[in-house]
From TrEMBL:
InterPro entries: Cupin_8 (IPR041667), JmjC_dom (IPR003347), JMJD6_ArgDemeth/LysHydrox (IPR050910). Transmembrane segments: none annotated. It holds the Pfam family Cupin_8. It comes from the Eukaryota. Residues 2-161 form the JmjC domain. This is F-box protein. Coiled coil: none annotated. GO terms for molecular function: cis-regulatory region sequence-specific DNA binding.
Amino acid sequence: MKLEVGPAGDYEAPSCFQEDLFAVLGDQRPDHRWLIIGPERSGSTFHKDPNATSAWNAVVRGSKYWIMFPPYIMPPGVFVSDDQSEVTSPLSIGEWLLSFHEEARQTSGCLEGVCEEGEVLHVPSGWWHLVVNLDPAIAITQNFVPRSHVGSVVDFLDRKRAQISGFKDDVTDPLELFLGRLKEEYPGLAVELKRDDADKSRKRKWEEVVAPASVENASSGAFSFGFGDDLESEPED
Ligand SMILES: O=C(O)CCC(=O)C(=O)O
Ligand SMILES: [Fe+2]
């Protein structure tokens, strides 16, 4: 896919990434777009993007190597604290590649590839990624919230408050703000989210009372419920 750059050098998000429910926050939305410029061999160590957002990344100059893992497959050589608030990748990008690249490529779920000038990559909500500039590179990246992942974002704002990032200081309760705005602009969706939430808490109570073993199933992702992206969202605490 190509990034459309206009005559004045401005750009539009590729059409398939234009649905962005954080747009309801207007100028209260968290930071969401960056120009990334780096020399050959620079890049980003393994991370997930903030607030369970998805991202697109368009290479304007140069090329980038990407290696990615789905939300519940830990890349080898990367460790997180129990609440996922601290990501420890004890090695530089180069050392990680020398020590773990081959193992990572054999790990199920691993995806890798190179984006050349003019190409755009999608990083779905919750996916781990490491990126290396193969040449001096310039890229534009933007975080967004498609409808298919709004459940994960609401869940993150609700249950990972200490890890929320990018909002201005005057936004004291991002969850309440987001749900309030969704209710105004997407009333049907807000009702769906609410119903989904009620389902989850009913299920939690049911598990606590009658089926301790199934809690383990839920944590391992053996079955799922809810909003459509649950397989990729956080297990119940
Ligand atoms: O180095 C890059 O282009 C990747 C950047 C990235 O993953 C991010 O900004 O979250
Ligand atoms: Fe990222």
